[in-house]
């Protein structure tokens, strides 16, 4: 049984940035054609020798939060049905939003492991604001910077060890 990790969250939180980071080593080898990776939503990755598939969600992303709630629900539900683990990404710059809460309600119902990832924690000064997300009550809480890669190791150690 293969392990499938879905990255879900509102537009612009940094899902695709993390997705590309998780894939970059392999994609560099496999896809020599420029632009090939840009539109991909599935990719293979591995951590500590453990292989897994990553799903990037949010083909609807338009770079703003001005999207239909219904569309978010559909995308999240599709990813959740397919995934064995879920990375729920939020953005420290914007703080906790109503849409975050709605997405989290859907995820909680899935009974699959959910990793809350507070992204854009690029330096230690964002650690304190990131604690706002504790109120969701998620056990598996991580802060990271998809842009720099800092924090991704701790996240992947946990995700892979729960497979
Ligand atoms: P998506 O819509 O959730 O897929 O988000 P993207 O991956 O497209 O990222 C949205 C924007 O946030 C882009 O401008 C990224 O460069 C930026 N971004 C992503 N991750 C980080 C991060 O860790 N720190 C900062 N400062 N910016 C980030
Ligand atoms: Mg995206």
How confident is the prediction overall: mean pLDDT? Answer: 86
Fraction of residues in H or I helices: 25-40%
Helix/strand order, N-terminal first = EHEEHEHEHEH
Major sheet details:
6 strands, mixed
CATH topology (fold) name? Rossmann fold
> For this structure, what is the CATH class?
Alpha Beta
Function: GTPase that plays an essential role in the late steps of ribosome biogenesis.
Subunit structure: Associates with the 50S ribosomal subunit.
Binding site for GTP 1: 9-16, 56-60, 119-122
Family: Belongs to the TRAFAC class TrmE-Era-EngA-EngB-Septin-like GTPase superfamily. EngA (Der) GTPase family.
Summarize the structure.
The chain is of the alpha/beta class.
